[in-house]
Specification:
235 residues, alpha/beta, Rossmann fold, 6-stranded mixed sheet, 4-stranded antiparallel sheet, binds adenosine-5'-triphosphate
């Protein structure tokens, strides 16, 4: 579904990605783990077109997308939930969700997706008229995921959904990530520093160090890999 071929991405003179190749198949949850500053967020930004790669190719469903604008990439079915959530704080929950469906015209589909989201996150239904900025951190993460789902993506890019949240909320959010994948058949590309959690929900994983992929394997094998255990699982 998604293929990154030897991409190199820069911020001015700083090279953040030094030739990254990855593949994501339809229906999978894949995770990209790695230390602070390894280049995980930059990888997602290179896919969503926010920081396009300077060299290499990104293709989605067989079509090259690395020279497309971010809105065009969204319209093809890729939605990103950014690190730090970035919901619209002065808009209500409902208005935030409407923004997610901005490019859609199928009213019935939008209505049924909204019902699905409110069933996944009943708290958002309760708070639908409340300003996004007044929600708790966990609720804002739920809203950010829901807003992305309102675009009905085929591929959902999630950047550090666990960041700054209490363990009980993180577990809830990760359960829902698995549910969205199983029920909606949404393919998920998950960037996480919490490798323990990420490898529990993912089917496959990649490890990134210093702008390069250093390992790729099934989540199960990565979980029992001695180097991964030592560096990322605290075992
Ligand atoms: P984190 O988990 O801390 O978000 P990460 O693995 O997602 O880390 P990136 O945010 O992709 O890493 O950063 C990769 C490299 O690019 C780092 O060296 C970082 O300092 C640099 N970088 C990221 N954003 C910018 C920017 N806007 N301008 C300049 N350098 C940047």
């Amino acid at each position: 579904m998604l293929k990154l071929s030897n991409i190199q991405t820069f911020y001015g003179n700083i090279q953040a990605l030094k030739g990254v190749s990855m593949e994501v198949s339809e229906g999978e949850i894949i995770t990209l783990i790695g230390a602070n500053g390894a280049g995980k967020t930059t990888t997602l930004m290179s896919v969503s077109g926010i920081v396009p790669p300077r060299f290499g190719e990104v293709s989605f469903m067989g079509q090259p997308i690395h020279e497309m604008s971010p809105d065009k990439i969204v319209s093809l079915g890729i939605s990103q939930v950014p690190e730090g959530r970035h919901i619209f704080p002065y808009l209500t929950v409902m208005e935030n969700l409407d923004m997610g469906a901005f490019l859609r015209t199928d009213r019935n589909g939008i209505k049924s997706d909204l019902d699905y989201i409110f069933a996944l996150f009943p708290i958002l239904a309760e708070r639908r008229n409340q300003a996004g900025g007044t929600l708790s951190g966990g609720e804002q993460q739920m809203l950010a995921i829901s807003r992305a789902l309102m675009a009905r993506p085929r591929l959902l890019l999630l950047d550090e959904p666990s960041l700054g949240l209490a363990p009980i909320i993180v577990r809830q959010i990760f359960d829902i990530i698995s549910k969205i994948n199983a029920e909606q058949k949404t393919t998920i590309f998950l960037v996480e520093q919490n490798a323990n959690l990420a490898l529990k929900v993912a089917h496959r994983g990649y490890v990134m160090e210093n702008g390069r992929i250093t390992l790729s394997d099934s989540a199960e094998n990565l979980f029992s890999n001695e180097a991964v255990k030592k560096a990322y699982l605290g075992l």
